[in-house]
Amino acid sequence: AIFNPKGTKIILNKNDNGSFWVMPQADNSKHINIQLRFNLKEPTKIEFNSGETTLLAKGNIGFNLPKKKIYGAINLDSKEQGSLNLSGKGYLDGFEFKTKAKINKLKLGIVKDILGNDSNIITKGDINGDLSLAIKKGIITCKGNLMLDNLTLRGGILSDTLSNKNSQIKCNNNKLNLINSNWDYGYLSISNSLEVLFNEKEIDSSAFIKIKDFDHKPLSLKIKLPISIVDRRFLFGDLDSDFNLESFPLAALNTILNTSLSGKLNTKGYFRGTFPTLNSSIDIALENPQTNGIRLREKWKGNFARDPNKKEWGTLAMESDSASIPGNLKLNLNKDG
């Protein structure tokens, strides 16, 4: 079926579950043999929330439902908040596609406008640039640049505000880089670099995390995560992650935890394996720890180890160092914690 709408207006309002569009549940007993094509030669007006936000759509889109394919090109223009042009082809049921996006001064505030005032999602910032991305038989190729300016996100899985003044996503055929990535999230300041190596099929990331407005050495975190695409689905390999934190003043946590802490913490360790059965080994050293007025003028050293594959669900062993009366602590966890 081919549709050639002219002077068409599409009005979308959220249902009781907050969705603008609901896909029907598949009935495996019925074979769908429908092909649809929409030729939007003239701009079609799409209105959200009874006209509060309007987009103009122009292009052509095709659906081959028996083969679960989509193809075509579409331009969405908000007039005052930028535009988005998408073209390409791919599958509806997995990661195999070829697409090109051209984003012209797109203001992310439009997402908040579309979702409406009853949504807790907050989006601000500007995106500008071109990006081509393709996945074919598990091989990823990419080219282009995207600029992110004054980004602010909150809501959903983000209980606090995540913000970034400016970053750049740069991509070529061999890798994708996130450049100048400095973020604020609640009490945290995060300096991050991320590299996706397509040939090696691996994500490499490093981050330095600090408590804002507090002078201390940052927590360093390094992550390697293998990735692959099999049967149009993303698969993750064994995580390889190391972290290190030196001379961290526990008083930096007082505002966050609404408590009274002091002393210094040194810790380093690793996480290895697959979720949720990660192996871990964490060295811990506390110097003169104090909580709510109770202070120990001594050092405590120990280790936490976990290896679920050996049914070792976690063991914490600590002992005092240079104390007048030596002490020790041992805690064994079961599968449920």
Count of discrete alpha- or pi-helical segments spanning 4 or more residues = 2
| Mean of pLDDT | 90
Task: Give a quick account of the main beta sheet: strands, pairing sense, barrel closure.
Answer: 22 strands, mixed
Radius of gyration: 26 Å
How much of the sequence lies in strands comes to over 45%
Distance between the termini: 57 Å
What would you call the structural class? mainly beta
How helix-rich are the residues, as a percent range?
Answer: under 10%
List keywords for this structure.
single chain; 337 residues; mainly beta; 2 helices; 22 strands
Give the structure's gist in a few sentences.
This protein has helices at residues 109-115, 254-257; strands at residues 2-3, 9-12, 35-48, 53-64, 69-77, 83-91, 97-107, 122-136, 139-155, 158-171, 175-185, 188-197, 202-211, 219-230, 233-236, 239-249, 261-273, 279-291, 294-295, 299-307, 312-321, 328-332. With 337 residues, it is mainly beta.
Task: Explain this structure.
- This protein is 3% helix and 64% strand.
- The chain has a 22-stranded mixed sheet that branches.
- A hairpin with a 2-residue loop joins strand 8 and strand 9.
- The N and C termini lie far apart (57 Å).
Secondary structure elements and pairings:
Blueprint: E1 2-3, E2 9-12, E3 35-48, E4 53-64, E5 69-77, E6 83-91, E7 97-107, H1 109-115, E8 122-136, E9 139-155, E10 158-171, E11 175-185, E12 188-197, E13 202-211, E14 219-230, E15 233-236, E16 239-249, H2 254-257, E17 261-273, E18 279-291, E19 294-295, E20 299-307, E21 312-321, E22 328-332
Parallel strand pairs: 1-3, 2-3
Antiparallel strand pairs: 3-4, 4-5, 5-6, 6-7, 7-8, 8-9, 9-10, 10-11, 11-12, 12-13, 13-14, 14-15, 14-16, 16-17, 17-18, 18-19, 18-20, 20-21, 21-22
